[in-house]
């Protein structure tokens, strides 16, 4: 039996040292409950005298019901009533207050007096009216314990709160995490090692093929360092991951930690910022001290722009700013007198333009790895990752979803998948279908549908012709973005929308920009041609057209009058300039050229709508009837797009040449492509602007 008991204990009968230690908080809680319970159950005992005042006692004195009065410490009067009076009051059910007085033998009433002299005068007047004298006894009670408690209680509370805070900070500082008061300068870095169960590898990262190739060099060096040392090569000391939000910079860093099989210290740039002076620099020193102890290892600093902003440009801060001190310490640790052999620094930011030049130089961050928005192939791979946990329609085409989401980041695609699952569950479906994904894309890009919004019939007609104008011009013009659908259902701030699917191109020609401007102005032109007046619904269209026209003149050099000049500043330094980089005469010419570009696009849209007036009317009436019109309906009204016809003819010609045994000629590719700042777009939504 004893042996069984020992086996049950699991430690041979000895006390289990791993049992949780008793917490002092339980003792404090029990004491507090005891005090509260005492006051609740015993503080207002039925034997305690009632709190009263002289206005209640004076009639009792005049009626001769008071047996005696005791004055305690010259400030408290205790009233003793005759036994008959006590029984009378306790039996009185109408006077609920006095019916609760204690029985005879102790004081029945008690109240505080201002001074003994005034009380004696009031008592003498009452005695004279009743003709009965009431004995008054004066007593003094020792309050040493009460006074001691009152004097010590504030100090006990202060010391107790201090001990509680210190114990809390000590618990939070476990493992040197920097949570305690004495550890405020410790770095709060999370440490991942090769034994971590929740490792992320490159297999879990879809897309980002070029970024993975570059960053694999760092991983390969850590795994096979001797191969590089034999050739005298040195691994880059740091790599900066740059890209828009949601593209997978942090996920890529986690994959590096999982692949490298070396310690990985992760910390955020905001963790260095503290209200105490000097804490940021101290945490930087502690971070690199931990990294040197674990070398070879990787240090990852997420959102490094929190401390890496260019020095001297922090508005509202002096030259002795805490962030600048932290940055100076970081610069010293990364490439100073002390060498950090085997410590590689990875950092991520989406604002590389504001980082300090000293931080970006070779020797600190030797290379920048661009983590951009995924293309159509990479989006399909990302969809494959996020669709794994979903119950999908077997007929779902994943390549179709990738084509419907140009300009979406990995985070956006994850949101689309989750939103589609929510929509399917809301409609009690057994699986997530194609319609759910399309509704999710519309919901994310355009906002929530508002079918109950009050719109008059006249306003609805204007919106229908407005959206029909957008759809018609974009369908007829060759270089405009292809149309997906048109709707007059309010969504978000827009009262209607025309949805397009922009081509994923790296460069855009002037004619393509003109066609897109004309398609954007198609709604405004349609209103004017149909109703003879214009409305405020084209606010969003006019804003986009104006910005694009000025960009064509001042950024892309697409104006013959202004010439091949560009005032675009990719470094972001123009924000600090106090003057324009051009003269007033040039400003007038820029304004005139922007006006000419908009007028030309307006004339193009007007010509298209006049030539296809019947189609516009037919499309608008169909919108009023069905509220949503898709590509097939527009194609039935206007026929196939010219661009689609040319593509089909080209594909047929190539197929004919292949059938005849001829070798298809390779399409010439430009030797050099330029990056278009306006090329990365999501599915366009040409709406009718904010509600007015």
List keywords for this structure.
single chain, 692 residues, alpha/beta, six-stranded mixed beta sheet, 15 strands, elongated, disordered N terminus
Characterization of the model:
The chain has 692 residues and is of the alpha/beta class. It is built from 24 helices and 15 strands. The protein has helices at 2-9, 24-41, 54-62, 83-91, 116-130, 144-172, 209-223, 225-230, 249-260, 279-293, 305-308, 322-334, 357-360, 376-386, 398-403, 410-426, 434-446, 457-476, 510-531, 539-554, 584-611, 613-626, 631-638, 642-659, and strands at residues 50-51, 66-72, 76-81, 109-112, 136-139, 190-192, 238-242, 264-268, 297-302, 343-349, 367-370, 483-487, 497-500, 628-630, 685-687. Helix 7 (209-223) packs parallel to helix 9 (249-260). The longest helix has 29 residues, at 144-172. It is elongated and about 135 Å long.
Report low-confidence residues grouped into runs of 5 or more. Answer: 1-19, 173-182, 664-683
Large-scale geometry:
elongated
Helix count, DSSP H or I runs of 4 or more residues:
24
Give a quick account of the main beta sheet: strands, pairing sense, barrel closure.
6 strands, mixed
Question: Which range does the strand content fall in?
Answer: 5-15%
Rounded Rg: 41 Å
**Helical proportion, percent range:** 40-55%
Oligomer classification: single chain
Strand line-up of the largest beta sheet:
6-8-9-10-7-11
Structural class: alpha/beta
- Average of pLDDT: 77
Number of beta-strand segments: 15
């Amino acid at each position: 039996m004893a042996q069984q008991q020992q086996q049950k204990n699991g430690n041979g009968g000895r006390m289990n040292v791993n049992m949780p230690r008793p917490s002092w908080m339980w003792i404090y809680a029990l004491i507090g409950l005891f005090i509260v319970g005492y006051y609740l159950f015993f503080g207002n005992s039925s034997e305690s005298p009632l709190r009263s005042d002289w206005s209640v006692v004076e009639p009792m004195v005049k009626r001769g019901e008071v047996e005696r009065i005791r004055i305690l410490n010259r400030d408290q009067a205790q009233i003793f009533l005759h036994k008959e009076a006590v029984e009378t009051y306790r039996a009185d059910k109408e006077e609920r207050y006095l019916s609760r007085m204690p029985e005879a033998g102790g004081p029945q009433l008690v109240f505080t007096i201002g001074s003994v002299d005034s009380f004696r005068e009031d008592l003498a007047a009452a005695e004279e009216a009743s003709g009965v004298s009431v004995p008054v006894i004066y007593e003094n009670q020792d309050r040493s314990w009460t006074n001691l408690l009152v004097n010590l209680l504030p100090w006990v509370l202060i010391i107790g709160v201090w001990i509680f805070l210190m114990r809390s900070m000590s618990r939070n500082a476990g493992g040197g995490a920097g949570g305690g008061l004495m550890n405020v300068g410790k770095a709060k870095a999370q440490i991942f090692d090769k034994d971590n169960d929740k490792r992320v590898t490159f297999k879990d990262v879809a897309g980002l093929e070029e970024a993975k190739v570059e960053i694999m060099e760092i991983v390969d060096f850590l795994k096979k360092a001797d191969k590089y040392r034999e050739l005298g090569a040195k691994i880059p000391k740091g790599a900066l991951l740059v890209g828009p939000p949601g593209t997978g910079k942090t996920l890529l860093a986690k994959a590096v930690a999982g692949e490298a099989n070396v310690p990985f210290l992760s910390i955020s740039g905001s963790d260095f910022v503290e209200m105490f002076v000097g804490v940021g620099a101290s945490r930087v020193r502690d971070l690199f001290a931990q990294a040197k102890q674990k070398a070879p290892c990787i240090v990852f600093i997420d959102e490094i722009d929190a401390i890496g902003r260019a020095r001297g440009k922090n508005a509202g801060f002096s030259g002795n700013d805490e962030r600048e001190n932290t940055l100076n310490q970081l610069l010293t640790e990364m490439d100073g007198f002390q060498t950090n052999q085997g410590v590689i620094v990875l950092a991520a930011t989406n604002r590389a333009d504001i980082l300090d030049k000293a931080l970006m130089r070779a020797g600190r961050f030797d290379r920048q790895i661009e983590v951009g928005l995924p293309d159509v192939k990479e989006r399909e791979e990302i969809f494959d990752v996020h669709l794994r946990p979903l119950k999908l329609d077997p007929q779902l085409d994943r390549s179709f979803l990738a084509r419907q989401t140009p300009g979406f980041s990995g985070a956006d695609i994850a949101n689309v998948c989750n939103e589609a699952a929510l929509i399917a569950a809301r409609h009690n479906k057994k699986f997530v279908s194609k319609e759910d994904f399309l509704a999710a894309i519309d919901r994310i890009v355009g906002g929530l549908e508002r079918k109950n919004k009050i719109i008059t019939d006249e306003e609805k007609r204007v919106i229908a012709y407005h959206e029909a104008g957008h759809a018609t011009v974009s369908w007829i013009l060759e270089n405009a973005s292809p149309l997906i659908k048109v709707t007059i259902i309010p969504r978000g701030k827009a009262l209607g929308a025309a949805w397009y699917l922009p081509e994923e191109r790296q460069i855009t020609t002037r004619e393509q920009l003109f066609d897109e401007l004309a398609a954007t102005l198609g709604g405004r032109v349609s209103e004017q041609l149909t109703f003879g007046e214009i409305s405020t619904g084209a606010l969003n269209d006019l804003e986009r057209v104006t910005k694009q026209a000025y960009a064509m003149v001042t950024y892309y050099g697409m104006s013959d009058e202004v010439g091949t000049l560009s005032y675009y500043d990719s470094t972001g330094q123009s924000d600090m300039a106090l003057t324009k980089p051009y003269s007033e005469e040039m400003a007038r010419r820029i304004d005139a050229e922007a006006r000419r570009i908009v007028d030309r696009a307006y004339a193009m849209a007007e010509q298209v709508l006049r030539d296809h007036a019947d189609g516009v009317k037919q499309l608008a009436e169909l919108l009023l009837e069905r509220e949503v019109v898709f590509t097939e309906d527009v194609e039935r009204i206007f026929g196939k797009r010219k661009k689609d016809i040319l593509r089909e003819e080209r594909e047929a010609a190539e197929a004919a040449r292949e059938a005849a045994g001829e070798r298809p000629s390779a399409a010439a590719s430009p030797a050099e492509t330029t990056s278009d700042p306006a090329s990365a777009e999501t599915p366009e939504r040409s709406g009718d602007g904010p509600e007015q």
